[in-house]
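Researcher: Here's a chain I'd like modeled. Treat it as a single chain, no partners, no ligands.
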Amino acid sequence: MEELARAAGITVRTLRFYRERGLIPPPRREGRIAWYDDHHLARLRTITGLLERGHTLNGIADLAATFESGRDVAEVLGLGEPTEETPVRLTPEQLADYFEGEVTPENLATALDLGYLATDGDEIVHISRRLLEVSAELVREGVPLSTVLSSGRRVREHADALAEIFVRVLHAHTKETEPAQLRPLARAVVDAELSMALDRRLRREDGTQPPKA
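Model: Modeled as a single isolated chain. Structure tokens:
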């Protein structure tokens, strides 16, 4: 225990307190000997990093419980990694830096439920670098992360419906072509339609929508 505390830069008393609070998992025991490993050290460094970012011990305990109840990366990526997205590995501290003040147990639970986040040992995996960067930018612009996530859930529902439309059409009319080969066409249609829909919506918002005949 003394060696672990020294490596983590804390006192043995603090280490015992963290263990009593359930902030670190119990050690592996062989008789009367308790064995700590790199997982415990990583958790202690995470606790220190989150404390430095203003999180409370109660909040850290809630975050840890949320992650431990979430799906691991093997489950989220069980059908294979996204073909056009790049997963991102993060420490809890790095995730907190992306969404300063917005990393709450509630938001984490939502992100885990959506499959945006998964766990891999002491690391967090975000399923898509693009979604991570866009979400962080929206939060920096003042949109609450809870709103970003709830909007993401609605977008996911519409995206699934669009994907079903395209796959049905392709299966019905392009039997000699693999649907995956036509993904760029589907994406181009969605991008163009979304662009025009935004134009229409923004014109209505600023009152420049041309009158109907």
